[in-house]
Automatic annotation (TrEMBL), chains A, B, C, D:
<keyword id="KW-0186">Copper</keyword>
<dbReference type="InterPro" id="IPR003735">
    <property type="entry name" value="Metal_Tscrpt_repr"/>
</dbReference>
<comment type="similarity">
    <text>Belongs to the CsoR family.</text>
</comment>
<protein>
    <submittedName>
        <fullName>Metal-sensitive transcriptional regulator</fullName>
    </submittedName>
</protein>
<dbReference type="InterPro" id="IPR038390">
    <property type="entry name" value="Metal_Tscrpt_repr_sf"/>
</dbReference>
<dbReference type="Pfam" id="PF02583">
    <property type="entry name" value="Trns_repr_metal"/>
</dbReference>
Length: 93, 93, 93, 93
């Protein structure tokens, strides 16, 4: 079971909302809305995705990484490395 | 007519693909996929959104802002200010 | 003359302050300050650099790009392309 | 002792290099270099700072957070929360 399991429904609700926002972007473009208004909405969707990612990361650190550390051994270091690489991708995206 | 009008179909195709990717994220969470794999996909969706935004911005600068500059007067400065605020939101999202 | 020329002193003051903040980071590390406090300061320096970049960009759009658009011809499109590439680097850094 | 202690000299060397790059930015502005070239250098300094932050974060997760998890108790959860907040600041800067 993964760290986010306990918040699964909340994540699914947020992702469905983001899906709706992306459909909203399609409508704005289809209806020739002003570029800046479309850009403002793109920034809002990006921030919503980011906050889903930050939640997943906190759950992962507090559950999967913590569990590996608790059990000790080489897996602990691998989990930290893996999480750090995911953080780097997030920071650079 | 806005700067992105000439690429409208391409933007709609990209946004539909992003919509599909967000649905894919829902499936990953619903099927309890590993946190890091979900995070990797979130970064991919964020980057796809970012590149849509950068395209819209270039079209806007080259069309709406350029037109205002061509026509001269206070609107030119307003358009530059407005575009710069949109860039700031993008950089900080 | 470039767009930022009129604000040159202000930019130099801000960059000297950022230089001081980076020296402050060195002191924190040399004096074994807590990791999270060092990280908080790194985020502050990154935001300060970002706001210098956003200012330079607005000046550039309002001066160098506007001038090229005013004069018309192929240089206008090149300037827009060049500015858009700089915005992309900023968004992705 | 903090996670980054073992790499302290390397971090100090990198931060001194970043300090030099910021002084380089001052020289570029003082000598009226082209805006886009200054912006390119700002992006380079931002990325260098980011990679210092990502290194500090990995060290912190692998040492301070891991230690708190090992020892168990409420401090473990606090450390995860604290690290997650630092990651959020980094993602949003």
């Amino acid at each position: 079971m993964h760290g986010y399991a306990k918040d699964k429904d909340a994540y699914l609700t947020r992702l469905r909302r983001i899906e709706g926002q992306v459909r909203g972007l399609q409508r704005m473009v289809a209806e020739d809305e002003y570029c800046i208004d479309v850009l403002t909405q793109v920034s809002a969707v990006t921030r919503a995705l980011q906050s889903v990612a930050l939640g997943l990361l906190e759950d992962h650190l507090g559950h999967c990484v913590a569990q590996a550390i608790d059990e000790g051994g080489p897996e602990a270091e691998e989990k930290v490395k893996e999480a750090s690489a995911a953080i780097a991708r997030l920071v650079r995206s």
